[in-house]
Amino acid sequence: MSTENTAPNSSKLTPFNLIAGLIVIVGLFITVLRFTKGLGAVSNLSNHSPWGIWIGFDLLVGVALAAGGYVTSAAVYVFGMKRYHSAVRPAVLTGFLGYLFVVIALHYDVGRPWRLPYPFIVGWGTTSLLFEVGLCVALYLTVLFLEFTPAPLEWLGLTKTRNLAVKLTMVLTIFGVVLSTLHQSSLGALFLIAPSKLHPLWYSPYLPVFFFVSSIIAGLSMVIFEGSLSHKAFHHKMDATHLQESDGLVLGFGKAAALVLAGYFTIKIVGITAGNHWHLLTSPYGYWFLVELLGFVALPCLLYAMGAREKNLKLIRFTAAWTVAGIVLNRLNVSVIAFNYHLPVAERYFPHWMEIGISVFMVTLLILVYRFIVTRMPILYGHPDYQANH
Amino acid sequence: MAISRRKFLGWMGAAGIGSTVAKSAGAASTGHFTGYPGSMGVLHDITRCVGCRSCEAACNQVNNLAAPTKPFSDLTVLEQKRATTNEAYTVVNRYESSEPKAAIPVFRKIQCNHCLEPACASVCFVRAFKKTEKGPVLYDPSVCVGCRYCMMACPFEIPTYEYNEPLTPRVLKCTLCAPRLEQGLLPGCVEACPKEALTFGKRTDLIQIARERIRNHPGRYLNHIYGENEMGGTSWLYLSSVPFGSVGLREDLGIKPAPELTAGALSIVPMVVGLWPVLLTGVFAMNKRKEKIAAQEQAQAVAAAVAEAQRKAQTQLTQALDKAKKEKDKALEQAEKAKEQAVKKALEAAATATETKPQTKGEGEEV
Ligand code: SF4
Ligand code: SF4
Ligand code: SF4
Q1: DSSP code of A138?
Q2: What contacts B115, CB < 8 A, 6 or more positions away?
Q3: Is residue B100 part of a domain?
């Protein structure tokens, strides 16, 4: 496959490429600064706010939005929804890249990134939820990589290895669901240690459950959202099966998302009731909580349900984007906005522009790598040589 | 497929339930721990503290920290609320009490409280923090990754970070002068305090001393030893005349030790690892079976349809053959009839011919 024909946009000076190039240059500049001058030079992190958006957005949001991988492969392989088969590869690819860039972004945040394997070599701090997160993310990244390998192997024409990798599908899927359940929930459980710092409307012993359930919502919505984006950008790369299955997928996943959102809404209410925090709803934090709960949980639940009932694909696609924004809001609320709520405003954290710069840099790199891969490998179409068992 | 699935379950069982996970859940759910016997602590009597900052100076000196921009004798720094930094493991703050009876300001010294079951230690994924049996909570920079989860977790907002170290940042905090204790010396701050606002000793003894002071001077002290039970108990203890909340010590921390906050979440891990694969494989197997049954039913239907078609075809064939035979018979019959008729006609014709031509009579009879 020659690159010229298959990647029409990647070497031309389109506006997208120009902006992406600019972001990459700025990102590299901040990278140098981070590793020569330290975190203090590029961030507003402090002793009271040791975690900023590199954890709140890059890690928490990143992992939640990369849930599409396990959600889709579980739906197709475990729950037998074979009709959505063509969605698995793009979802697994975004999942893999999502986790990969989560791990890359962590290298900026932690003090000594080359020690990231230490927990499993010297530390074994098994009382730490971060240990669990680390272990599961490391294992799951491997799982996603293996799930993804058939595509590059088909691209390279390594049939035998490819068939071996395909055989592992079922085991990998179950392993992936177990690992995802664990670390998606553990990311919420990270905050269980700090009841005195996180606002009681967001702090709940159910945090792990909230994070796990909302990761399913994030996964479903992200698959729809990302599907509609790549439809615009890579329509020419999609084969008939993919195009034909995609409308059904949007409907099916939209319906599923409506259901899970309804469940999520209910357990959120259970959370407030269990903590008896109803009176807090009339404070400024309470209004903000209601914005999240009504605007980004109840509303999309309704819209998804309407969309699914009226078979309104446009509405479902819009709702997917809205829900993704809601996930971003929720994760930032827990980690940054409602965290340290007890501190005076002057001591609160607000991200430095360079922190935002690195987050944007990471997202840009992810998109560039995604584009590189889908324009070359059989992601959005079945490889002609492997149609029978694809 | 079946083999690999079974194998996979085996791995999960061996890897998850057998080793790490059980250990973590077990460690997190230890029963109520009231501190190592004989472990040391410090009692800070806030009512005796005059805010002279001698303790800060001593701390700076014994820990070889950088000299501050303003000398320790400069008390104007007390105008601001300060927190510990990576260059000051302890700071003294002044609090203007709103209580009329304590019109004078009160001072409180801030440093690591050396919790009995420290949040910082329970959340560290490389176990860089350790509660030692003698009392101090110590940090090992040689394994620290710099994730700063310890700082997120500490309810007293104590650990600090070297944000300006690009490659070797450490988490820094008071060590309770563990190196000095080894040499039989007092912690720097305790030794320096001119007002005996700080008392070093066995934690159990300190609690007795504090109780006594409260008993002897009920008007001077609140009847509460801060740190006796807060967050499961701390090695530093506080006595005060004003509510602890008004000197920056949170009163809403509860008495649960930090590890209990996460014990529930950790104990779910083996459940998920044990149950999920079984449930998922079950769902998968059910779907597979459904598919198989569907396929079988389909196959049966096809077979039936084929048989039916064959049967029909057979009957049709037989019918066709019958019909053909009948037609053949009929045709033969007709042919026979035609032949007979033809013979008859011929005979008749011959008869007429005999009548007209008598010489051919013999031939006609022969036919
Ligand atoms: S006060 Fe904070 S840093 Fe000190 S031992 Fe307790 S949790 Fe750890
Ligand atoms: S920053 Fe270091 S000491 Fe603190 S939790 Fe992370 S690895 Fe442990
Ligand atoms: S040296 Fe003693 S009296 Fe002076 S500030 Fe420190 S604790 Fe208070």
Answers
A1: H
A2: B131, B137, B231, B232, B233, B234, B235, B257, B258
A3: yes
CATH code at B86?
3.30.70.20
Q: Return the DSSP state at B99.
A: -
- Contact at CB, B152 and A193, closer than 8 angstroms: yes
B4/A171 Cβ within 8 A: yes
Mean pLDDT per 10-residue interval, chain A, length 390 residues: 42 83 95 94 94 95 94 89 85 93 95 92 87 92 90 85 83 91 94 94 94 96 89 80 82 93 95 89 93 96 94 94 96 95 90 95 94 87 66
8-state DSSP, B65: P
Q: Is residue A186 within 8 Å of residue A132, measured between CB atoms?
A: yes
Dist. CA A172–CA A70, nearest whole Å: 10
For chain B, the domain total comes to 1
Domain spans in chain A, listed from the N-terminal domain onward: 16-382
Beta bridge partners of B41: B201
Please give the single-letter amino acid code of residue A207.
L
Backbone angle region of B127, left / alpha / beta, with phi > 0 → left and psi within -120 to 50 → alpha: left
Is B299 domain-assigned?
no
- CB-CB under 8 Å, B123 with A129: yes
CA distance A8 to A14: 11
Q: Is the dihedral of CA A282, A283, A287, A292 positive or negative?
A: negative
Is residue B82 within 8 A of residue B51, CB to CB? The reply is no
Mutational pocket test of ligand 2: of B148, B152, B162, B262, the residue with most ligand atoms within 8 Å of the beta carbon: B148
Please tell me the distance between residue A118's alpha carbon and the centre of ligand 2 in angstroms. Answer: 11
Please tell me the total number of residues recorded for chain A in this structure: 390
Give the contacts of A140 (CB within 8 A, at least 6 positions apart).
A70, A99, A176, A179, A180, A183
Instruction: Return the structure tokens found at B297.
Output: 């039913």
Cα of A390 to ligand 2 centre, how many Å? 45
> Which CATH number is A16-382 given?
1.20.1630.10
Q: How far is A11 from chain B, CA to nearest CA, in Å?
A: 35
Q: Would B165 be classed as within a structural domain?
A: yes
CA-nearest of A190, A232, A203 to A63 is A190
Which residue shows structure tokens 């506080």? B238
Q: Would you tell me the crossing angle of helices B21-28 and B258-356 to the nearest 10 degrees?
A: 140
ipTM computed for the complex = 0.90
- Supply the pTM of this predicted model: 0.83
Q: Is residue B47 part of a domain?
A: yes
SS3 of B239, please?
A: strand
In the numeric block, which tokens belong to residue A176?
């992936």
Provide the mean pLDDT of chain A.
89
Spatial CA neighbour of B107 closest among B86, B81, B71: B81
| Residue A359 contacts residue A53 (beta carbons within 8 Å) | yes
User: Ligand 2: distance of its center to the CA of B159 in Å?
Assistant: 10
- Which ligand does the CA of B54 lie closest to? 3
Q: DSSP states of A15-49 as a string?
A: HHHHHHHHHHHHHHHHHHHHHHH-HHHH----SS-
Q: Separation of B111 CA from ligand 3 center, angstroms? A: 12
Which chain A residue shows the shortest CA-CA distance from B27? A127
Mutation to probe ligand 1, out of B39, B144, B173 (largest number of atoms < 8 A from CB): B173
B92: enclosing H helix or E strand: strand B91-95
Q: What is the DSSP string of B137-187?
A: EEE-TTT-----HHHHH-TT---EE-TT-SS---EE---TTHHHHHTTPPP
Beta bridge partners of B203: none
Whose C-alpha lies nearest to ligand 3, atom 2? B193
Q: Does A254 contact B at CB distance below 8 Å? A: no
Q: What are the backbone angles phi and psi of residue A38, rounded to the nearest 5°?
A: 95, 170
Residue B172's H or E segment, with its range, is: strand B171-172
Q: Is the CB of residue A285 less than 8 Å from the CB of residue A339? A: no
B76: domain range? 31-267
